């Protein structure tokens, strides 16, 4: 199989955030099963794109065939998402729902995402289950193939030391141990690998 690329995207954009550490942990779990299939994992940090609330004058679905983006931030985000064959979105849950920055970043694009497989990994006090479900509905509607296994990573001990560490941007060892033992991240990676290993995966998914 020809080499493929998966973007592992940290979707949190807060100044102080545990998202990059959660994504780095996810990377340690998925690298081996994906690497065995010649799939490269490329870390991407949404926060570095500085996307404002969508401010283009064109509708995302029109790009690139009928219109072009005007602003450099849109062009950069479009180019990054376009170059990958699949995605792992590591999303936070804030106030019992999807974060505004996460939804805004998804809404910037249509054709760049469409037809490709994606794993949703959420985290939060209760694992980010509400945000996970909301993003699944959104991405399915946009035309992505959402993997069945969608890990929901709850901080160890609930409202305990690991949560307070996360508030300061640190990821507790107990949480990491529990997440790895749960096996959902590795299972989702295998599902993503299986989809990407199919011939003409984008064409097949687009027909669904």
TrEMBL record:
Gene3D superfamilies, alphabetized: 3.40.50.360
InterPro entries referenced in this protein's UniProt entry, alphabetically: Flavoprotein-like_sf, FMN_Rdtase-like_dom, NAD(P)H-dep_reductase
SUPFAM superfamilies: Flavoproteins
Domain of life: Eukaryota
A GO MF label: oxidoreductase activity
NADPH-dependent FMN reductase-like domain location: 6-146
GO CC entries: cytosol
Protein's name in the database: Uu.00g085010.m01.CDS01
Species whose genome carries this gene: Anthostomella pinea
Phylogenetic lineage: Eukaryota, Fungi, Dikarya, Ascomycota, Pezizomycotina
